[in-house]
Amino acid sequence: IEGPLAESCDLAGVSEVLLKIFMEPDFVKQLIDKTMPTAKDFARAQVEAGCDIMGVGDAICSQVDAETYREFVKEKHRELFTYIQSLGAKVKLHICGNITHLLEDLRDVEPDIVDIDWMVDMDLAYEKLGPNIIRCGNLDPVSVIQDLDPETIGEKTQKLCEKETNRPFILSGGCEITVNTPHEHLKAMRTASQPTNH
Fold first, then answer.
1. How far apart are CA 40 and CA 196, in angstroms?
2. Which pTM does this prediction carry?
3. What's the pLDDT band for 196 if we cut at 50, 70, 90?
4. Which residue of 67, 86, 92, 97 sits 20 to 30 Å from the alpha carbon of 103, by its own alpha carbon?
């Protein structure tokens, strides 16, 4: 489901919402409030249909500072995640881009899984998010997964998996895998991530 700030941008436009955060903050808060019932209804429908991990995408949050996140989004994330978890599902939060400045606040809203894009340091993310949140990531989907040869991709995958030993971690690209990525590259990641290889 779309997170509250992303859905607001879907409805009113990215530029409009980002400008109105400064010029008409009450408008943005009202718009965010209006997105919440739909998000909850859609989450409930998916859980009733058998979903047990709910992806919440709020990518635009990487484009606002921590203060803005706290004022406009943080409590809405907490409300939405708590609701989804009360239905019996896990929450996987996706905010692509550099979210280093948001990590401590994201820990506070308690998603079960957080996607970590390639420009965020995984050690710092572990330090800030703590051991109870699973980090998912964070190979660069273009310069590594799409563009490198399978052998090098395997080496980078193995290095990342070794680094994450005994920490809550899911191997993936830092963001969306491109349509131009050869399937052999994904197979190289899978092979290199097997426990027998490290």
1. 42
2. 0.94
3. low
4. 86
